[in-house]
Q: What sequence folds into this?
């Protein structure tokens, strides 16, 4: 651990000379935009459910309207917010370095909305859909219903099975190829910038450790120490919307004086 300005300088230095940077983000990145984490969102009528009832295949089969209503509710929460300065800084950083890939656990699509062009969504995207029985991709627009309760899902236009969000539910495998690419990137990156994750949910939590053991400089941005903090090179304590712009400003200053 180092002092804040010393840590910031070290992060800027490592990023400025890096060929490949991975920015690994978690729910704290979305929370900065006002999107509650899964657990925080479970309030009101949703508080009584176990997450296993709201985010598993079994839960969806048991009560498609409850699960579809839950994701409609969360889509509504996301639609009322927008990417913050930290998302914009990550997109800006991509234009300043040779290669930058975002590997996110978040399902809100805010990195893409803010301009990042290479985003690996480990847990899918809440505004992308497929059918339950055959994973048929659902291209039709699925409007957000103005209702905070259970809602019957549409049927797949190809096979009629219920439409579900294209997100990774508890007990499901990550999309094929996504984790392999994420691990390849972790092994080959020069810097991994880990933002807003508690480091408790595998396999995402393992990526910073793979990066560190492969020789990368791992920089963590978090409002509080996480399960990763004792194993990173630089810990910058603070909000993503404040610290990320500071990092990018430092990289821009260094490039301007180079
Ligand atoms: N800026 C930076 N960090 C923040 C901010 C912020 N504004 N707000 C909160 N944090 C930090 C918290 O200190 C915490 O360490 O973000 C982290 C959020 O941790 P979790 O809620 O456990 O989120 P995450 O690590 O992404 O794991 C949640 O559950 O819903 C699934 O797909 C999701 O895999 C993810 C897991």
A:
């Amino acid at each position: 651990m180092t002092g804040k300005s010393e840590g910031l300088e070290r992060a800027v230095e490592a990023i400025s000379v890096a060929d490949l940077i991975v920015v690994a983000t978690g729910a704290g990145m979305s929370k900065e935009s006002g999107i509650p984490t899964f657990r925080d969102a479970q309030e009101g009528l949703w508080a009584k459910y176990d997450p296993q009832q709201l985010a598993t295949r079994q839960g969806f089969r048991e009560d498609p309207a409850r699960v579809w209503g839950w994701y409609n509710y969360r889509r509504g929460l996301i639609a009322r917010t927008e990417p913050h300065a930290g998302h914009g800084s990550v997109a800006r950083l991509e234009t300043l370095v040779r290669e930058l890939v975002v590997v996110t656990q978040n399902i809100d699509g805010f990195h893409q909305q803010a301009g990042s062009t290479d985003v690996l969504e480990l847990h899918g995207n809440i505004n992308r859909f497929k059918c339950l029985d055959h994973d048929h991709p659902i291209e039709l627009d699925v409007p957000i219903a103005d209702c905070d309760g259970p809602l019957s899902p549409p049927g797949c236009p190809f096979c009629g099975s219920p439409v579900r969000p294209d997100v990774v539910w508890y007990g499901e495998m990550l999309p094929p190829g996504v984790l392999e690419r994420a691990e390849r990137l972790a092994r080959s990156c020069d810097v991994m910038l880990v933002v807003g994750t508690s480091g408790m949910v595998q396999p995402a939590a393992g990526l910073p450790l793979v990066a560190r053991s492969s020789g990368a400089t791992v920089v963590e941005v978090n409002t509080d120490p996480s399960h990763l903090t004792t194993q990173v090179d630089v810990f910058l304590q603070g909000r993503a919307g404040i610290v990320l712009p500071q990092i990018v400003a430092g990289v821009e200053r260094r490039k301007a004086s180079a």
